[in-house]
Amino acid sequence: MALYSEKVMDHFRNPRNVGVIEDANGIGEVGNAKCGDIMKMYLKIEDDIIKDVKFETFGCGSAIASSSMATEMIKGQPVAEAEKLTNKAVAEALDGLPDYKMHCSVLAEEAIKSALEDYRKRSENKTEN
Ligand code: FES
């Protein structure tokens, strides 16, 4: 059996939503201390809907495939739905990851959660001022 599913290979070779959103209103950056991989997520949210999402991942193939798939899964979704995204759901959507690569999908979940948290903080600041 191949180590990686075709979906993983496809998202690794042709990652969707790579890049930066200049006027993002939610940005999250996370890293894994063990492997040293880093993932940065940019969200453009309007009326609580994720209008656009882009990512930059300096990491392994599974991390790139996970971030690509995760961005596809939350694009166009309400913030509340994106908050529910789990690394398991990302790995399942990729038709699975080897056990020792599951932490790569955790990075995608954490990057999105961190960007959503940043978005919340910014919106709170706005209402205070
Ligand atoms: Fe570190 Fe994949 S090996 S994220």
How would you describe this structure to a colleague?
By secondary structure, this protein is of the alpha+beta class. It is about 45% helix and about 20% strand. It has a three-stranded antiparallel beta sheet. Helix 2 (about 60-75) crosses helix 5 (about 100-129) and helix 4 (about 85-95) packs across helix 5. About 35% of the residues are buried. The model has no long low-confidence stretch (mean pLDDT about 95). The structure holds FE2/S2 (inorganic) cluster.
Bound molecules: FE2/S2 (inorganic) cluster
Structural class: alpha+beta
- The strands making up the biggest β-sheet line up spatially as 1-2-3
Sheet having the most strands: 3 strands, antiparallel
Number of domains: 1
Beta-strand content: 15-25%
Tell me the CATH architecture: Alpha-Beta Complex
The CATH topology annotation reads as: Sufe protein. Chain: A
**Bulk shape:** globular
Number of helices: 5
Rg measurement, Å: 14 Å
Q: How far apart are the termini?
A: 57 Å
CATH class: Alpha Beta
The ordered string of helix (H) and strand (E) elements is: HEEEHHHH
Low-pLDDT parts are: none
